[in-house]
Target: protein acetyllysine N-acetyltransferase
Amino acid sequence: MGHPKRLAILTGAGMSTESGVPDFRSQTGLWANHDPMQTATVEALEDQYDTFHSFYGNRLDRLKSIEPHSGHAIITEWQKQGIVSVIATQNVDRLHQASGSENVAELHGNLREFRCHDCREKAKQEDFIAKKRCDHCGGKLRPAIVLFGEQLPMEAWEYAARKIRESDVLLVVGTSLQVAPVNQLPELAAKERIYINEEVDTPISFTRTIQSKAGEGLRRLSKEWQI
Model:
């Protein structure tokens, strides 16, 4: 079987769980012990900053020991081979970049950069951890992620959408496609759509479904495509 020439890739939490990053909605996921409306919203940041700060401080601590797995390496190699037109991700851990991938469309932002909530001036991680205020306006510092109720970064969204429309294959890995508006992206792919996930109950129609962990499914495709 020949490999695609314009492969668009969309990844979600299941791409990172093999590296030890917890997902959100499973019985052991982040939302099992935390109410997202109390920890991951603008209201939480503004009105319950101690709770907000503690939640994201703990997530940052977890990331210190997290490394990309073989599935990330496969995607990076495909990109080096020139067949990947876009890597779009819902994940905020930057494991794709840590594996060597470039030009990743971060649809939900990332946990490696920080800014002021009020004036949007860039900030340092150590200042966020220390609960310092913005040097410019005195506002609260936060990770550069998309909180519930916020708009997705338009540049990343438009780039991902355009590349998915242009692709000959869309590969969706490790996402339940429960979160809008990212769950609308697969509908933009007019040609072949492949889905890799441990749970394959999804409202989106796919040309092919591989029920497996991310790394296993990616290794299978890499062998089939001989790359």
